Amino acid sequence: MKLLIGENTYEESESLLLKSMIEIIDKPMFFKDIEGVYKICNQAYCDFLGLEYDQIIGKNMDEVIPHELYDTFKKADDELISNKNMQQFERKILMHDDELHDIVFKKNIYHDNFGQCRGIIGVLEDVTEEKLNMKKIEKREMIKDLFLNLNNNLGHNLENMDIFDHLIKGLVDIFDDADYGSVLKIDNRNKLKSISSVGYIEKSIEMFELNLKDSFIYQYSMGMIDNPKILKNLTDVKFDRCPDIPETVDGNTVQSMMFIPISDSNNEQWYICLDSNMPNAFNEFDLKIAEYVMFQVPILNRIFKLNHERLEISRYDELTGLINRRYFTELLKEKIRYVKNHKLQLVMIMIDLDNLKAVNDVFGHQKGDAYLKFFSSEIKKFFRTDDIIARIGGDEFVGIFVTDDSAEIELTINKFQNKFGKKKIKFNNSKFKVNFSYGVAVYPNECSNTEELIKMADERMYRDKFSKK
């Protein structure tokens, strides 16, 4: 029986103790000498590398570690031996399951009881699942925040907001594999057409139009398009009638897609397409998030429509569909600021319908309403869509026009008056001749503020009206 004295027997004892300690650790752990030769490892380390114990022990690091990682790990070992400070770093490693794993390496110098450096002891931790769970939590919060922000913005910036523009940009940011995105709407011809996109050349995506049954979405899924789906390796799949996917801004080819079908209570249908230039993009968790999106978008769209309807009611005259007095006042202030900044002119035309009271008295208010609607329809057709025409009272209307030639606007309203004055409205068996009076004022040529502008246009309108009597 040998006594544990002398260098060899002590080393053997120390080695056995170290081996026992390493083996009881459930995380991958190893010990290698200063030459980089593996002396001890536990079963967890064998499993981590996908090797047998005999394939590791006694082998140098370059015989065990994948070639593409050897230089990085050798450099880290050399730095550890030189600096003698504990080392910790994280790397993405392609494991034997052909998946990238996030691995945390913790290493330190191992000294014997005499203070001599015997080698490096290290422990590894696969944090892939932990990071994935953290990312899932983060992604859930990001999706919730996206819809919360969209809901909040509906009340503050409704008129300038396209919810699908904001939505697709937000989704492309949230889904890691998404490089591009689009929202395709089914129109009344049952054709898919893009209404919003990210990452595609604008002209290319605008021209994209096809029958639903001819699309990748429909054909790849064999018509089962009621739930979100992931379509992979699109470049390897060919269908007879499928057109080319629109051109991307970065010039890469779309190789994977995740689509999310959306439908609402009014039978409107959209498909949100999140696209990737990788052949095997998106995963099962992405699908779960997509299902959440599928149920939230119709709610968001309904809120948007309700808010938009309320806005329309508050801004437009119910009878004629023209802008009402309250909204007109807001727009007038905006246009005054605009012409000041751009050194243009603002022409105001104050209008009063002739003989509306007589129509109401003789034929009734229903015919009077028809007169108001007829005038509103005619004047909207005559002027540009971006010109502002408002009904501000019973028979009173006003128009404001931004221009660099006020004479042209005056000529246009005069032409419209002559044309409109030749028309007649039929009431029962009678025909009633229609017309209107108007007055024009120009800012800043004739007046310096809105009060003077309104007063001048109003006075000139009454002058025109009384000149007919």
Write a brief caption for the model.
This protein is an alpha+beta fold. It is 44% helix and 24% strand. A hairpin with a 5-residue loop joins strand 3 and strand 4.
Layout of secondary structure:
Layout: H1 7-24, E1 29-33, E2 38-41, H2 43-49, H3 61-64, H4 67-83, E3 87-94, E4 100-111, E5 117-126, H5 128-154, H6 163-174, E6 180-186, E7 191-198, H7 202-206, E8 209-211, H8 216-220, E9 229-231, E10 256-263, E11 269-276, H9 284-315, H10 325-342, E12 345-353, H11 356-363, H12 365-382, E13 388-391, E14 396-403, H13 406-421, E15 424-427, E16 430-433, E17 436-443, H14 450-467
Antiparallel strand pairs: 1-2, 1-5, 3-4, 4-5, 6-7, 6-11, 7-8, 9-10, 10-11, 12-14, 12-17, 13-14, 15-16
Structure description:
- The protein contains 14 helices and 17 strands.
- With 469 residues, it is an alpha+beta fold.
- The protein folds into 3 domains: 7-126, 2-Layer Sandwich (Beta-Lactamase); 132-312, GAF domain (Beta-Lactamase); 325-467, Alpha-Beta Plaits (2-Layer Sandwich).
- A 6-stranded antiparallel β-sheet has the order 8-7-6-11-10-9. A 5-stranded antiparallel β-sheet has the order 2-1-5-4-3, with helices on both faces. Strands 13-14-12-17 form a 4-stranded antiparallel β-sheet, with helices on both faces.
- Helix 11 (356-363) packs antiparallel against helix 12 (365-382).
- The longest helix has 32 residues, at 284-315.
- Mean pLDDT is 87; it is low at 1-7.
